[in-house]
Amino acid sequence: MAQQTPRLVKQTLDKDLDKISSVEAATHSVSRRLAGPGTALIFLVAAMLFAAVAVIDRPGAIIVIAAAAVGAYMAMNIGANDVTNNVGPAVGSKAMSMGLALFIAAVFETAGAMIAGGDVVETISKGIVNPALFENTDMFIWAMMAALLSSALWVNLATWIGAPVSTTHAVVGGVVGAGIAAAGFGSVDWGQMGGIAASWVISPLMGGVVAAAFLAFIKEFIIYRHDKITAARRWVPVLIAVMVGAFSSYLALKGLRQLVHVSLLNAVLVGLVAGALAWGLSVPLIRRQSQGLENRNQSLRKLFQMPLIFSAALLSFAHGANDVANAIGPLSAIVSVAQGGGVSGAVTIPLWVMVIGAIGISVGLLLFGPRLIRLVGEQITKLNPMRAFCVSLSAALTVIIASWLGLPVSSTHIAVGAVFGVGFFREWYTRNSKRRVEYMKMKADKWEIEERPERNAEELRRRYLVRRSHFMTIVAAWVITVPAAGALAALLYLVMSLFFL
Q1: 3-class SS at 295?
Q2: Percent of the chain clearing pLDDT 70 (strictly above)
Q3: pTM above 0.85, yes or no
Q4: Which residues neighbour 236 within 8 Å (Cβ) at sequence distance 6 or greater?
Q5: Given a cut of 60, is residue 452 above it in pLDDT?
Q6: CA 336: distance to chain centroid?
Q7: Rounded CA gap, 380 and 94, in Å?
Q8: What is the dihedral sign for C-alpha 112, 117, 123, 124?
Q9: How is 180-234 classified by DSSP, letter by letter?
Q10: CA dist 161 to 131, 334, 407, 430, Å?
Q11: Which of 313, 305, 277 is nearest to 289 (CA)?
């Protein structure tokens, strides 16, 4: 009996140690899940302290500090949701790693916001609400606070359910809802709202069609050619030239508009010159890169990797320059009015406000961006560098086309619509392309592969290249973004008015 006692003690000790190990593992798991929200909370507190230092001796300091926290929260949600569209295709196609994508996006988003974010922004969401109809400045301040908080909450919810939505539309919905609650339906420019509603349909359709058209071109003139490498040497420099020209025009027209005023015609001329230079430089580069490559699709993918990395960087820069206003526009309006600047349609953005917006976007991207990056790049449809290149090129070209036509579009809807367009086009092409059938038949004859048409037809009927569940979730989120953000803003304004007005 005495001999069994040490064994029992050892068994009891082992069980206790196992329990302690389990508790430590559970604690570590929980702490990892709390690391992101904890870091985000630290950033919000830092933003409030930063704002306090800037405005502590000025009128309305308390409300400005509170608004700074809400603006920082909105900026983080923009980074977590909206920025992912710029780098998602490149990550999904394995052109670059998640770490590199986060680094590039964070650096270029911040640079775009700080360099070209602008000193003046139409804070009332492009004239949607008439500020003159507000009875007093307090009503305006709390309406903007409600709009900013509601849009941030809605984008946060969309990120949580895995739906990339337009942060611009969320801000528009918030401003409309709060404006109606504060000043009535007459305060809203419903003609402007009609154009925004039209962009729900226009943006993804244009993005999808343009991306599908470029993918059709690549398949027709490069992929399904007998000598793929020779075809790539001819056409890849042309595609790179189109990409560089499109992005140059995009940056001149949108990303740098606060530094210099560039008309659409001048932006196109800038794009043509940049495209011609890019073609001249890329011809020898592609020829050198393609030397020794095998005549197969895997070889072609290598030629598109570097252009994809540049496109992700340029898209991030332009996005930071434009969409940072979604977080700091209403915040700047609150700052201006609270400090006695009066209610106006456009205000000057203080440097400290710009810093909060720029850093907030990067913080949100680094903490919460990877989930939507994987969704956009990997889970909607399978992307390779060629398909991802079509998505990035579509994003720049569609914005230019829409600007030329005077159509209001969403960069988020364009990019995600391009991903859907690539996937749906592949489904159609797989079923209906005579070129693909001829190519596969030639390949089967060359390698003596037995064709089984009945089995192939059945597999094609059962094979979907776009995940329908993601499609329905994202479309539903797009449709209800403006009304949902508006209803939430109206509710928040009514609650705030009970306590503060």
Answers
A1: coil
A2: 81
A3: no
A4: 222, 282, 286, 303, 304
A5: no
A6: 29
A7: 15
A8: negative
A9: HHHH-GGGB-HHHHHHHHHHHHHHHHHHHHHHHHHHHHHIIIIITSSSHHHHHHH
A10: 34, 30, 29, 31
A11: 305
